[in-house]
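This week, study the protein below.
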Amino acid sequence: MTNLTEMGRIVIVDNYYTSLGLAEDLLSQKTFLCGTLNKIRKYLPKQVTSYKLQKGEIIGKMNKKGVKVMKWMDKRNVLMLTTCKDHDDNLIDTGKKKRGTDECIKKPGCVLLYNKTKKGIDFSDQMSSYYTTLKRGIKWWRKVVMELIFGTALINAWIVFNSIQTDGKKLPKRLFVEKLIESLIKKEIDETPAPESARHCLEKGEKRRRCVGCYQKLRTFLPSREADKKSKKILTQCTQCKKSYCLPCFNEKHS
């Protein structure tokens, strides 16, 4: 792969990755950086991060290596870090006007660049959230790996696939995933609706409730209050019936 540094490219990042050290390291490789910044990062100029601004005001400071930290007050404080040469603490007219006042909307150059280019990341995250494979778990690294493989990598493959279609027809993500699965398992996905009994399954709920099956059995010889007290308290419920069942009662009900 061709080296991506030393080419004067601009890297757009959000505040999870932005730091002074990263900006200086990239700048030494002729690669620029622009992104939002978390005020708790180390080595930031206090005269910028702690300065109280009025709405529309901006303040900035550049270090000896060419890294600029800027703070701009919009509806709230916006802290930015940039190494782009044309980014300064001047506000640029966006060509838009505020409703009702016809006042020109002005923003810093770094904010305009960030808003314009971050859409690719937002789109990727949005599409990755559809039909997601992520599940709750204790091991955080497993979630990261699953998201990289079945989220980011899958979205990238889908975009590339659609870009090389000669007929111009784009395949929806769901159909692309189905085709990918079929190519891996060497078998077509059967879309025949499952029988009614197969669609009922137990899932873990958020709150313990009385088992409906146990309650109905006890009600044959006990008053409702006594039956309610003696019914099992369980977390599981049927996904289709939306009623709480213990495993034995669930099997009896849907056998």
User: Anything to note?
Assistant: The chain has nine helices and nine strands. The chain has a mean pLDDT of 88. Residues 140-163 form the longest helix (24 residues). Strands lie at 10-13, 32-36, 58-62, 68-73, 77-82, 91-97, 104-108, 202-210, 233-238.
